[in-house]
Design brief:
Blueprint lengths: L2 E4 L3 E5 L5 E6 L2 E4 L4 E4 L3 H18 L6 E4 L4 E5 L2 E12 L3 H6 L6 E11 L8 E2 L1 H6 L5 H23 L3 E13 L2 E5 L7 E5 L9 H4 L5 H12 L2
């Protein structure tokens, strides 16, 4: 396999099949656009497993994504996609940057889910953008934006119900999309690295905020999510 790309938490490799890639999940942990870095033992293993289970669920719910199968503890086989330079954030409850930007109290339940876009660019530190920016920057056209928004809304509906059944609140999450054979599909990962997940009774944080906020027991939080969803 030839290394195609290495990001903060994953490596992507070419395979013998030009239409398939291998995604390798690392133990690296980063926050605040890479300003805070560490290593969390077994994080890659846990995130690979969680992402695989969730992608399988989304397939069953009619949401097309790049996942094909798990091939090892740290690796999944995926469809080749050309990633769209867009991060899609769905927020159900106030937490993180939106609280700092808008003076919202953490834990505030929104009347309706908020959908935000950021420009996927390390150089510019992933700035928030709107649909007009997306069009001007030629990131996506109007029809593609519509498809992405519909996907994000459906993913939110599916995952809120799924997590609530195992006593987890889906606070917010980030999605990435790509094009596979000219069709937009869900890509990247869905894990405690990309979702805020709180215990539904105690509001204990079981996600990357344990690392961001120095709460300790990071991998224990991730493993608790895995244990609940794989029962």
């Amino acid at each position: 396999m030839n290394l195609l790309y290495e990001g903060k938490a994953k490596k992507v490799f070419r395979t013998d099949n030009e239409n398939e890639y291998i995604v390798y999940f690392k133990d690296d942990a980063t926050a605040f656009n890479g300003e805070k870095r560490s290593e969390v033992n077994e994080k890659g293993i846990v995130n690979n497993r969680i992402s695989s289970l969730i992608f399988e669920l989304l397939h069953q719910k009619g949401i097309d994504n790049h996942f094909i199968k798990m091939v090892s503890d740290r690796e999944m086989l995926v469809k080749k996609v050309d990633i769209i330079s867009l991060e899609v954030i769905v927020r159900n409850i106030g937490a993180g940057s939106i609280c700092k930007r808008l003076g919202i109290e953490e834990g505030k339940k929104f009347k309706k889910s908020i959908l935000e876009f950021s420009y996927k660019s390390d150089e510019y530190k992933d700035p928030l953008i709107n649909e007009d920016h997306i069009l001007v920057l030629d990131i996506a056209n109007e029809e593609e934006i519509k498809i992405i928004k519909e996907y994000a809304t459906k993913v939110n509906e599916v995952l809120k119900e799924f997590f609530s059944k195992v006593d987890l609140t889906l606070v917010d999450f980030k999605l990435e999309f790509g094009k596979h054979e000219s069709k937009i599909i869900l890509a990247d990962e869905i894990s405690p690295d990309t979702c805020r997940l709180w215990d539904i009774n105690s509001n204990e944080k079981l996600d990357k905020d344990r690392f961001r906020q120095d709460l300790g027991k990071v991998i224990e939080g991730y493993k608790e999510v895995l244990n609940r969803i794989q029962k």
